[in-house]
Amino acid sequence: MKLFVEGMTCGHCVGTITAALRRLDADARIDVDLANAEVHVESDHVSAEAAIDAIQREGYIAAAKAPDSARRCCGTCHG
Questions:
Q1: Can you list the domains of the chain with their CATH numbers?
Q2: Which of 15, 41, 50, 59 lies deepest, with the highest CB count within 10 Å?
Q3: How far apart, in whole angstroms, are the C-alpha atoms of residue 11 and residue 44?
């Protein structure tokens, strides 16, 4: 599945989102594309809805289609 994630702008964001998805399926294949704000997940055990929920619990905006609003930084790399 391909998900679009707003607010994902640095390595910390990638780690946070990857960890959230790994908690759903430790064997999932997860590829994060910061430049396009996309997360690709290959899993036999995780639905798009569950992945979106896990990402949103971490404070990001996630959807199965591209969001219309601007990307925002999590702030970790600026602190």
A1: 2-78 (3.30.70.100)
A2: 41
A3: 26
Distance, C-alpha 25 to centroid of its chain: 14
Distance of CA 45 to the CA centre of its chain: 17
Q: Exposure of 77 by Cβ count < 10 A (0-12 exposed, 13-18 middle, 19+ buried)? A: exposed
* Cα–Cα distance for residue pair 55/46, rounded to 1 Å: 12
As a dihedral over the C-alpha atoms of residue 66, residue 51, residue 73, residue 75, rounded to 10 degrees, the angle is 170
Query: What is the pLDDT confidence band of residue 18, given thresholds at 50, 70 and 90?
Result: very high
As a whole number of angstroms, the distance between CA 51 and CA 45 comes to 10
